[in-house]
Amino acid sequence: MKRKLIATAIIGLLGVAVFGMLYAQTLTYDSTNFNADARKLQPAPTGHTVGKDSGPGQGLHNSGEDCGICHTPNGKAGNYVFTVAGTIYEDRAARRPLKGAEVILQDYAGTVISMTTNEAGNFWTYAEMAGNHYALSSHSGITDYLYAVNADGSVTQASPTDSRTWQYKAWVKNSDGAIRQMVTIAPVGGSSASTARMSCNMHHSPFGSTGAAWASRKNSLATYPTSSLSLRKHILPIFVSKCAPCHIPGSRMTRLATMSDVTTSSTNTSNVQLTNTTVTSIDYSNNQDFMSYAGSIYTSGSTTVTKQGIKDFVNTSNPDESPVLTKTKVQDPGTTIHAGGSFWTIDDADYKAVRQWIAEGANNN
Amino acid sequence: MGNRLILLAVSIAAFGMALGCSNSNSSGMTSQSVNLVGSKQGLAVGFVDVDGDGIEDKIVGAPYAASASSTGAVLVYSGMTSGYSSSNTDLLKAGNDNFGYSFVNLGDVDGDGKADFAISAIHGSGDDAGDTSLSGTVTIYKGGGNGRIIKKIGGDGPMDKFGYALAAGDIDGDGKPDIIVSAPFNTNDPALYQSGAGYVYFAPDFTTRVALYASTTNKALGLGVAAGDVNGDGIADLLIAASGKVLVYFGGTAFAPAINAPNITLTSTAAGFGKAIAVIGDLDGDGKNEIAIGAPNAVINNLRDTGSVFIVKGSATGLVALDTAPADLLVRINGAGLFNRFGASISSIGDVDGDGGKPDFAVGAPMADITTLSGQNILSGKVYLFKGKDITSTTTLANSTEFEGLVKNHQFGTSLAKSASGMLLIGAPRSNMDTGGVMMVDPATGQAVPGGSSGGATGGTGDCH
After folding, report:
1. Nearest residue of B to residue A297, measured between CA atoms
2. What is the Cα Rg of chain A in Å?
3. What is the ipTM of this complex?
4. Distances in Å between the alpha carbon of A59 and those of A24, A123, A227, B455?
5. Which strand (E) or helix (H) includes residue B433?
6. Which of A75, A120, A298 sits opposite B191 (nearest CB)?
7. CA–CA gap between residue B454 and residue B432 (Å, rounded)
8. What are the residues facing A329 on neighbouring strands?
9. What is the mean pLDDT of residues B4-32?
10. Mean of the per-residue pLDDT values for chain B?
């Protein structure tokens, strides 16, 4: 009996060890899984000095503008060429800038870059960044292969000085506990090798299609009633503020870019580029449209995208277990369960308003 | 290069730093003070008689002014027989967040002989009924009413940015000016997510409206709007920007435009085409007013955001592709260089030079650099004054008179407005850590107007590499 118990215990410990190893494997982030899908739940790196890579100077001007127009080679501020720069706000509407947020980047080699935002919400860095030498560059509908496939099927890496190969995963942390990460793996460079640098505001600007970059537990509306919540008046503003630009109608595809996408074997002679363009995309909306109550059907040419809406992710019997609430709650440090980050606690007014609306039946009112 | 009038003549002392303000009257307007650091004073500017003394007051939008309850304010500087008060005499706050983003002098809506006006809050709480939130709000005020509100109107959905652009004109020909409101982030169809909308709300009650929603062929609707009589029938027409187009719908009784059936479609591949639109008056003497269209992001000689302005004949009809230099295009004027954003703002300023009625107009290039004795002031900004008599098919910047901003990152010329007496108010919302400010000049003489300048420019540029 005793031997049986010991054997069981040993098997159990082995099992735990194996599980632990497997679990540890899933938490290993390196160049082999440097793509949007594998990194979507990667916790923000820790252990570094916060703000260590913030650029010099005051940088209080032109918040929300495309920094890369001037701070680029041959630009008006061509003597101050940033690697990455942008502006963080309290909310997607960009009503007020967010001071003191930490912007964290992790490059292809695992190096962590940390910046903090100033009074204008601005951040910028000159830090160098490691690149994925097998990257593709997509711009204006054109895919540019930065590596070269040789006649014998071998692959020649892209130039490490080409900023289009410099890729990073990004997070924004606020002192109130909110943390939001960028789903895509973005390149620093744009359409050409020598002229572009990443300006986050190029896309994440107050008047850009995605709205401003933000990270805060701040309420979407100043006040809410304690009962008789309205979807139109109270709830949709919360979802439009917090759930776009991911959970919107239509296609939200992002291309994966990783060394593992390129087979460097000499036997691979013809399909390297095709594989990269057709297989390595994910829908980061997760087929959900939270701009609408019942979801949406989007048709563009021959493409039809059908998405679920808010009503499909509520639990009127147990509102606190509604996915629209649980997925986005602030988690323990080092834990990530939502690729779009976490931005409220059960004590926050936005959370309470949505919870109350669900408790009242989640009506389309 | 044209004549160069450096506005150092403007009293820099009067353009002093303003870090906070509050209203000082007891008219029922809020008495809450606001912090003007980062407020972007001058993003919207204008003139209207708020206090009812019969003299136009100076209006300065500060849509990012911070207060405990909301963001945004409008500062009112009382007009006097000579100039304007040196500090704000009133402070308007309504409609919630980013109040003061746009302003329009409507003209006399209610027949009391005083011009009424409207101010937008692009992230406001919606209309009087309160059934939308965060859609944007446009608050319509009674002129001379000391802040008395006629009506609040709101957008269709959250973050539509209802009130992004405003214009006024008698679109239905009933003798009362109507208001045009754009909401460029409106979504009326899942397939047209954030593709925009434009609305005409009819005076005097502003309850009846017509809506133009984006279509598959007309997206990015509403980044610019204007109203004015283009076809010479005495009734104001509606002009609204769509992607690569400016759509013109002729006004008239029972005005009911269809988005894909404008009376005139003006097209160009110039980036940012239509972000500024103005009906500037009759330049060619055919009895029809010309249209000025800014394309501030136009790439010229491979230099991005150089910017262009197109002057188009009011007699144009149907589809007009301006890039082919058609007969309907009087002239295309290009900006001076990289990232100047020439054409970001346009304002008719009347007949400044008294040449017998040919209208003059001003164009802003808020990102233009200024060369000074101490170096280059990047993004200081310029305003170019064009005289109607000088407009020909070969007109360039060299035919203009320049007014220049004072310091780096001033972004002088972001907004423009003309007073009834012909003075030009110029917004510079980025100076001094986005505190912003305005300057006022007599375009006929280049001299500063007493009390015309306000806000912050002397506290540095916020840029210190």
Report:
1. B190
2. 23
3. 0.90
4. 41, 8, 45, 21
5. helix B431-434
6. A298
7. 12
8. A344
9. 41
10. 89
Among B360, B371, B311, residue whose Cα is nearest residue B336: B371
**Residue B19 contacts A, CB cutoff 8 Å:** no
Three-state SS sequence of chain A: CHHHHHHHHHHHHHHHHHHHHHHHHHCCCCHHHCCCCCCCCCCCCCCCCCCCCCCCCCCCCCCCCCHHHCCCCCCCCCCCCCCEEEEEECCCCCCCECCCCEEEEEECCCCEEEEECCCCCEEEECCCCCECCCCEEEECCEEEECCEECCCCCEECCCCCCHHHEEEEEEEECCCCCEEECCCCEECCCCCCCCCCEEHHHCCCCCCCCCCEECCCCCCCCCCCCCCCCHHHHHHHHHHHHCCCCCCCCCCEEECCCHHHCCCCCCCCCCHHHHHHHCCEEECCCCECCCCCCCEEEEECCEEEEEECHHHHCCCCCHHHCHHHHCCECCCCCCCCCCCCECECCCCHHHHHHHHHHHCCCCCC
DSSP category for residue B232: S
Contact A61 B193 (CB under 8 A): no
Order of strands, sheet of B276-281, starting from the edge strand that comes earlier in the sequence:
B276-281, B290-295, B308-312, B329-334
What's the pTM? 0.91
Dihedral pair phi/psi, residue A296, rounded to 5°? -150, 155
Across the interface, whether the CB atoms of A249 and B70 are under 8 A apart is answered no
pLDDT at A73: 81
Measure CB to CB from residue B71 to each of A95, A220, A250 and give the nearest one.
A95
Residue B323 is predicted with a pLDDT of: 97
pLDDT at B32: 58
> Residues of B with CB below 8 A from A220's CB?
134
A 288-307 residues with CB below 8 A of B? 289, 291-292, 296-300
Give the H/E segment covering residue B50. Answer: none
* Cβ neighbours of A275 (radius 10 Å): 14
Contact A289 B305 (CB under 8 A): no
Listed residue (B167, B358, B326) closest to B310, CA to CA? B326
Q: What is the pLDDT of residues A303-334, one digit of tens each?
A: 888 999 999 999 999 999 999 999 999 999 99
pLDDT category at A139 given cuts 50, 70, 90 is low
pLDDT digits (tens, 9 = 90+) for B57-110: 999 999 999 988 889 999 999 999 989 998 898 889 887 899 999 999 999 999
Please tell me if residue B125 touches chain A, with a CB cutoff of 8 Å.
yes
One-letter amino acid identity for A122? Answer: N
Q: What is the C-alpha to C-alpha distance for residues A257 and A296, in angstroms, rounded to an integer? A: 29
| Angstrom distance (rounded) from CA A46 to CA A135 | 27
CA of B213 vs chain A CAs: smallest distance (Å): 17
> What is the number of other CB atoms lying within 10 angstroms of the CB of residue A48?
15
pLDDT of residue B429: 95
A329 in Cβ contact with A345 (< 8 Å):
yes
The position carrying tokens 């005289």 is: B387
Would you say B193 and B217 are in contact if contact means Cβ atoms under 8 Å apart? no
